[in-house]
Amino acid sequence: MRVLAAMSGGVDSAVAAARAVDAGHDVVGVHMALSKSRAEHRSGSRGCCSVEDGYDARRAADKLGIPYYVWDLSDDFEDTVVADFLSEYSAGRTPNPCVRCNEHVKFAALLERGLSMGFDAVCTGHYADLRDVEDGSGVRHELHRAANHPKDQSYVLAVMGKQVLGNVLFPLGDVPTKDEVRIEAAARGLGVSLKPDSYDICFIADGDTRGFLRQRLGENPGEIVDESGAVVGEHLGAFAYTIGQRRGLGLGIPAKDGLPRFVTKVDIETNRVHVGPVEALDVRRIIGADTVWLAPDIDPAEPLRAGVQVRAHGREIAATVRLEDDRLVMDLDEPLRGLAAGQSAVVYSGSRVLGQATVEETA
Predict the structure, then answer these.
(1) Under-50 pLDDT residues of the chain
(2) Are the C-beta atoms of 57 and 32 separated by less than 8 Å?
């Protein structure tokens, strides 16, 4: 196959590209330039897709002996991922930009461009497992958790959609530990073998999400109120708060019982942030919109027992799941604490990803 290897400049994507070469594919490396600021630099292990990352990706491609290109996808990234991030926070929701990047950039813009140029698949360094299953109607592509459970990224990949699964490769899906990836990179002479992992939001390299939101959205002072409606503090913008938040509230009046208080509601219409006891964060039902169902052999309209995960590395909770009027309803066996609208809820059956939806309501 002709394979387009997305090379971020990190060790995972470099080893994934190397494995694609070993598998006999005709591989071309491409680095996605996502930042609108060409002078942006990585800060320690924060951020990704920086100038330094582009240099590291080029050196890795040279070592592997494959062609290498830089594609400017910054407009796509700004118009989809960053715009969605700002729009969701403006609406009092908490988005996951990595999910949106996979949906709109890595497995939409990149794949679409690659297919139009005659490539058969996109290869990335994500930790996830793709399996081809024979059934009566042919081959079914399934997305599963990676062998490396602590690094598993199937949660942020579920949004891809079943139509994409036949055109992607995840060569690291069977690697049990990150240490083994680094050892393999060193053995191949790849200079990124000891490079630290990137984390946090890539377009907020200093990690100051609240500062980024205030810079882009401005200030809009308002009140912080407790469960009785009493004013207990002030804020500079309700959009900078998220459900379950405890730190950075700056409350001027302590709770009567002396216990910590958490953000329980962000009301954009009244510009108020509501706080309350930790018990107020418990939810037993999740209703998700924009459902992406990856399992054509399973009818989501029929209630099924499954596991639900709502954070990238959160634990899975048993639930009864069903699709009602294009919305995914998930009734949890036990309460879940601190879930905000805008986050992703992913449905699993064992290691297999069945579907995904964006949290719209909780109860």
Answers:
(1) 38-47
(2) no
